[in-house]
Write a structure and sequence with these properties.
- The chain is an all-alpha fold.
- It folds into 2 domains: 30-213, MFS general substrate transporter like domains (Growth Hormone, Chain: A, Up-down Bundle), CATH 1.20.1250.20; 221-412, MFS general substrate transporter like domains (Growth Hormone, Chain: A).
- It contains 12 helices and no strands.
- The longest helix is centred in the middle third of the chain and has 53 residues, at 158-210.
- The radius of gyration is 21 Å and the shape is globular.
- The chain starts with 38 loop residues before the first helix and ends in an 11-residue tail after the last helix.
């Protein structure tokens, strides 16, 4: 099937009941790109997750020891996400205008430089500047990296490559807190920020040297009405809402599953290990599940619905009074469900977006994920305040099931896509 003209959205895999549609290569070289050439993008994804989770864990564990109040710790933790929410769509659009590679390299270099502010970790203002700067820099290279994966993957390979990209981000989620604990034990927060700076700088050089050039494509002039049509079109909304829902479950599970284990009498190591089991599962399953999508064994609609249902089952399992053992099973189910939703939803977005505005679409989708990441813990925590934590988790599971039903019942898009 040929690409539609640049003023239209491509047909969406969610419009089909059977196998997903395949986008044609967006560049003549995309079909010949070797998997190893995408390795710098996977490393960029790792840096994003490692930077977010390691500093969050480090501040949570040592903030009071260096004189920070709980309120200041909360503000420092939030600054990273605030910067990402505000800037991801902006930098995604910038990557469409000037090309993804310079945005990725620039964002990684900015991450490296601004992380150096954390060397003065005894100063709350420097810590705030480092955290805000890291979030802004990650907002630059994260959507540009996702757009690059979409453009370089080519026809029939988006699921596999988004699975690998998500897997490396999952590895960053897994190793971030562990590496933070080891580095802080040796040299405190300054050593952690120094390692983050060096890591981002090294990956920036790797991207600059090894990543194939991805030139920007001619873009039609969009009006505000066009923007509203594109961002409210079901081919964008359905996978984005699915991504936001799965990320909401991830954010809530990482925080509340260990809390449930502690309440059930588990020691600290056993409780924290539940979050690691979830992250490891998420890391392992994504490339394999993305490959199922590319081989036509599972459509995007079916894969997303199944993933949300497995995720909801895991959350419900966590709400049951089965003790710490049941929470480990719940963590595996949640990780597997999110690992199914993520590559399928991102690949659907890639297939339904014209390449000349891939960055903006990925930035907007990442914005949805950030909002979900914030909303999940708030929903569970709010319900738990007036009821119990298991009931809060049950409400979150019900939301995931409702979204799955909505995806399953979304009617096929008839007629031409909205014009640009």
């Amino acid at each position: 099937m040929s690409r539609p003209c640049s003023s239209q959205l491509a047909p969406s895999p969610y419009d089909q009941g059977g196998h997903s549609l395949e986008a044609e290569p967006v560049t003549s070289a995309s079909a010949s790109v070797r998997p190893a050439r995408l390795a710098p993008l996977y490393a960029a994804g790792f840096v994003t997750a490692f930077g977010a989770f390691s500093v969050a864990a480090g501040l949570g564990a040592t903030g009071e020891e260096i004189g920070l109040s709980l309120l200041r710790i909360g503000v420092l933790l939030a600054l990273y996400d605030v910067a990402e929410v505000l800037l991801k769509p902006v930098f995604g659009s910038l990557s469409d205008r000037i090309g993804a590679k310079p945005v990725i390299v620039g964002g990684l270099l900015a991450f490296a430089v601004l992380s150096l502010l954390g060397l003065g970790a005894d100063n709350a203002l420097l810590l705030a500047g480092a955290r805000l700067g890291q979030g802004a820099a990650a907002a630059a290279f994260s959507p540009a990296a996702s757009a690059s994966v979409a453009r370089l993957a080519g026809a029939g390979r988006a699921g596999r490559y988004f699975g690998r990209y998500g897997s490396w981000k999952g590895l960053g989620y897994t190793l971030g807190p562990l590496l933070a604990a080891a580095l802080i034990a040796v040299g405190g927060l300054p050593l952690l920020f120094g390692v983050l700076s060096a890591s981002a700088g090294a990956v920036a050089v790797w991207v600059a040297v090894a990543l194939p050039a991805i030139p920007p494509l001619p873009r039609p002039r969009y009006t505000l009405v066009d923007l509203v049509k594109q961002t409210t079109d079901r081919r964008f909304l359905v996978p984005t809402i699915a991504l936001a829902t799965s990320t909401a479950v991830l954010g809530a599970s990482v925080g509340f599953l260990p809390a449930l284990a502690t309440a059930d009498g588990a020691d600290l190591v056993s409780a924290v290990a539940i979050a690691s089991v979830l992250a490891v599962t998420l890391t392992v399953v994504q490339p394999w599940l993305g490959g199922l999508r590319d081989r036509g064994l599972l459509s995007d609609r079916a894969g997303t619905v199944l993933g949300l249902c497995v995720t909801a089952t895991g959350v419900l399992a966590a709400a049951m009074p089965w003790g710490p053992g049941g929470l480990y099973l719940a963590a595996v189910l949640i990780g597997a469900g999110i690992g199914l939703v993520t590559p399928f939803a991102f690949a659907a977005l890639a297939d339904s977006t014209p390449p000349e505005r891939m960055g903006r679409t990925m930035g907007s989708a990442e914005l949805g994920r950030e909002l979900g990441d914030s909303a999940g813990p708030l929903v569970v925590g709010g319900v738990a305040t007036v009821a119990t934590l298991p009931i809060g988790l049950a409400v979150l599971a019900a939301i995931a099931v409702a979204v799955a039903v909505g995806v399953a019942l979304t009617p096929a898009k008839a007629g031409p896509a909205p014009a640009g």
